[in-house]
Design goal:
The structure is a single chain. The chain is α+β, with helices and mostly antiparallel strands. The protein folds into two domains: 140 residues, no CATH class; 78 residues, Alpha-Beta Plaits (2-Layer Sandwich), CATH 3.30.70. Helices cover 52% and strands 20% of the residues. It has a four-stranded antiparallel beta sheet, covered by helices on one side. Strands 1-2 form a two-stranded antiparallel ribbon. Helix 1 runs antiparallel to helix 2. The longest helix has 25 residues. It starts with a helix and ends with a strand.
Length: 225
């Protein structure tokens, strides 16, 4: 049977490891920060400690009662139940999804807490170290990685002949690829609305390049998203 001192050590260590991952998320302005991860890891460790305690207490059985104690049953419920917290940090805005990494971290920290609660200190510390290093290191590498950037562009213009071609020329000149486009015309106001879904392969999106569209004759409004 584990001692009270051992249990307290496991809970404190789980809190520190969870807080370490949460600190990285907090620095990057995510909704789940130090307190969330600390409490999550702490609670998971406590669940695992209780599971282990019940196993040791009842594995010999109780006179007159047949018991089949599974120390992993409560822990398994913690893993499956953590989904609602992960779902709460995922935000979708049109075609953009944020929070997937944070949700994955929530799940990993729960596993770390259970690992520490079970007494596997080396494994818990190793996973925490790998998680923090990957969050920081991979993010730095991503900043230097060319990727596809998507951008919505809406142009409202007077009904000027050849306006669509002029806008298209500027888009092509700066290396944007048109994924989809649309055109509508307001006969009463004599306005044309042109919409583009653009893609550009670069390290950082060059939205300022599209400012040339602003000064075209007849342009009334340009929205970039």
């Amino acid at each position: 049977m584990i001692t009270d001192l051992e249990i307290i050590f496991r809970l404190i260590l789980a809190s520190l490891l969870g807080g370490a991952v949460g600190l990285e998320r907090e620095v990057h302005g995510r909704s789940a920060g130090v307190r969330t991860y600390l409490l999550l890891s702490l609670g998971s460790a406590l669940i695992m400690v209780i599971s282990e305690y019940l196993f040791h207490k009842y594995r010999g059985g109780v006179p007159g009662i047949s018991l089949n104690v599974d120390p992993g049953r409560i822990a398994a419920q913690a893993i499956s139940g953590i989904g609602f917290l992960g779902a709460g940090v995922i935000i979708r805005n049109k075609d953009t999804i944020r929070g997937l990494t944070t949700a994955a971290c929530v799940w990993v920290v729960c596993a770390v807490g259970l690992t520490i609660g079970a007494g596997f200190y080396l494994y818990g510390c190793t996973v925490t170290a790998i998680t923090v290093v990957s969050l920081v290191g991979v993010k730095m590498a991503e900043r230097r990685l060319s990727r596809d950037w998507y951008q919505e562009m809406t142009v409202v213009s007077g009904d000027v002949p050849g306006q669509v071609e002029r806008v298209q020329e500027i888009i092509d000149r700066y290396g944007f690829k048109v994924i989809n486009s649309g055109l509508s015309k307001d006969l009463e106001k004599q306005e044309v609305t042109i919409t583009f879904l653009l893609r550009q392969r670069t390290v950082r999106p060059q939205r300022q390049a599209l400012q040339e569209v602003f000064v075209l004759e007849g342009i009334k409004r340009v929205d970039l998203k």
